[in-house]
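User: Predict the complex.
Assistant: Input components as received:
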Amino acid sequence: MTVRGPHAHHRVAVTGIGVVAPGAIGTKAFWELLTSGRTATRRISFFDPSPFRSQVAAECDFDPVAEGLTVEQSQRLDRAVQFALVCAREAIADSGLTLGDVDPYRLGVSLGTAVGATMSLDREYCVVSHRGKYWEVDPERAVPHLFDYLVPSSFAAEVAWDVGAEGPVSVISTGCTSGLDAVGHAWELIREGSADVMIAGATDAPISPITVACFDAIKATTTLNDDPEHASRPFDARRDGFVLGEGAAVFVLEEWERARRRGATVYAEIAGFATRCNAYHMTGLRPDGREMAEAIRASLDIARIPTTAIDYINAHGSGTRQNDRHETAAFKASLGDHAYATPVSSIKSMIGHSLGAIGSLEVAACALAITHNVIPPTANWTERDPECDLDYVPVTAREQQTDVVLSVGSGFGGFQSAMVLSDPEWACRD
Amino acid sequence: MTGIGVVAPTGIGREEYWEATRAGGSAIAPITRFDASKYRARLAGQVPDFDPAERLPSHLLPQTDPMTQYALIAAEHALDDAGIIPEQLPEYAAGVVTAAAYGGFEFGQGELQNLWSKGGEYVSAYQSFAWFYAVNTGQISIRHGMRGPGRVIVTEQAGGLDAVAQARRQVRGGTPVVVTGGADSALCPWGWVSQIANGRVSLREEPHRAYLPFSREACGYVPGEGAALLIVEDADSAHARGARRYGEVAGYAATFDPPPGSGRPPGLERAIRMALADAEVTPQEVDVVFADAAGVPDLDAVEAAALRAVFGEREVPVTAPKTGTGRLASAGACLDLVAAFLALRDQVIPPTPNVTRAHVAHPIALVGPEPVSASLQTALVLARGIGGFNAAMVIRRAA
Amino acid sequence: MEAFTLDDLRALLRECAGEPGGSLDGDHILDTTFAELGYDSLAVMEAAARVRRRYGVVLPEEVTQVESTLRAFVDAVRAQTQAQAV
């Protein structure tokens, strides 16, 4: 076993995974989708997208009642909360954890979301304002649970009630890094001893007119409207913006010894996590990827893992011109020559960019890559961009021994996050 | 804790706020920001009118909601107060952790109106970030060049304490300086209907009788707006640079209430006990409690019972200066921390405006509408977020 | 319709992005770039969006970059509005 230094921290195991993703409900379907290289992007079907610049999205075919929620929940809860509940239940079932055996005081929830109840807010705003006719709105038309849409902390509360958590419960909302940061937050709490088990993950259901319009306004999303299935093109020379997505992934994170004692199957260990701000621009990125590189270095430092041990990088890879260039520079700055030897892929090529949720979906992909020793591909990568010159695992999944994985995220506000996951056996073999 | 920045209904700037708070001032008044006449609730704690152009660079105004403007002003005050010049710090030495509850709701209402009344092309380029919960951490980090860890926590009113606790965690993890706190405002028609939908907002018309926690007449709370930002620093490096210290964050805990109807006890008492244990402080050593003071009879009863259970017969003074500002969501608990640190500094317990005495059913020693001089070393600050979030923080006076 | 002038652009920029690089007064700014005046891509996109809404013209990408000069932007609006009037 690796000695963990003078201030022994608790180690953190991923023992359960639940997923709701475009084209895949459930972890098994998700992994099949990713390894097949299929894309789940399509022309927006939730509303008529024709007035908008970008008309493509990665939508989930999700029936809340079929997934076990009540009709009341399906009507009251925002779609993003519905995703989170379904994922949390799947993750717990997957982990084999008996909730009755967990001290509720030592069980917490850390749920990420970038834009909270956007779909419900957009919809209910229309109702109370008579489609924006008046600045003063009509209180008689407000639904009683409007407050739960106003405050996204209600998301974590719903999950906590569902699983019976009475320990630390919070929502983490750092834009597009929320999904990594919420898992990172849970990791911190277990690591320092504030919880034994955390239900951690992230959810977003942002595909509504207001979201599409706001990304249109800054030309961040794709205009490849004629070819929706191939519109998400991370690292490809013809990329022209991201494809909006939705979904959720939730994990059971457990204190290492506890997981071991109950004989749990461990997908991966979360070995390190760090965040930095770029202090540069709310939407722009410094071309040299400096702060992301620093977050990567810091996370590896905490994990006590050398850069050369990284077998795979799960990239943010949003498919915007600037992001993919920024990230490629950050990998080179932090990994040096090893960046060229490391496969890098973006699952956003298949399931789009679900804002705050995607970071957790990517952590799920990392944990599954470690378990199966398969690296999911970057779909739609056909043409090399001279500024993006790493190995992006084009089109086809790759079988490869995968013990140490780096997952990164980058978001509006300047947030840069990095997480290191490792095979549960790997530290021992070292 | 080396710096304080405040934008509160009772004053902009630390001393303006503190003077009003100490004197038991109240800013609860009829809403003037929009025509509230047709809503059931019509009172709020509004930040006094000011010209943002005098306090912020012009390019930030079109891209910020009022709550972000408050956060930026308070963060600048806090840094100035601490004597920190971020450019002089090492590259990743300063982080930002904020709490948010509502996001930029007024900005968002404007853009929703543009979208639905005129069309998607009328939505601002700034909408993509101006209304999301992460905006304040991003804007503060950019304005002051702070490139260390960033985080945003959403736990409604408990967030103010949860953010400071996260800042402490970052400091312990090796980031010497963290700007932390909360900011919220949703005083636009759309924000207002959303707030009053929770059923806890006071419907009473008279400003001095609308928010009366622990009293016989408790009838809900009055929403407010504002920002409170603090500078949390590593104690050794603060000492090394000769910084004036208000005090230290000695202990903290967060818990969550069991599901409604489960019959299990609420989590506030446990949060208090855990925070005291974390601070290695006995109940006897706590000199004053800044209560969450929900203003809803059932919740007041839970808090009073928790205090009674922890402190027993001992009559620890309990105060709630927030009855003069209203509940400020994520800014609220952080503003209580500010009041608590200043109370320790000046050895005076600020009053609970408008509340003359606690209901006999709540056996607590509530500080009424007058300030009380006392010898104060240690304070306990409590916060609860709607939905079941509990947080408790123990602070100690600077030695 | 009155031809679009520097004064119109000045007012537009103040409205949607303030004056990050100092005062916009004086005609010498005509040959400076948006970037030199402290504007970022969002500011220029916002200005272009407002032109589109007010004057009904879509500006070419090359004049809505931060490296573009104010003159190029003003000229493009004029050319487009005139073309529309014909």
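The helical segments of chain C are 6-17, 41-55, 70-85.
Let me know if you want any component modeled separately.
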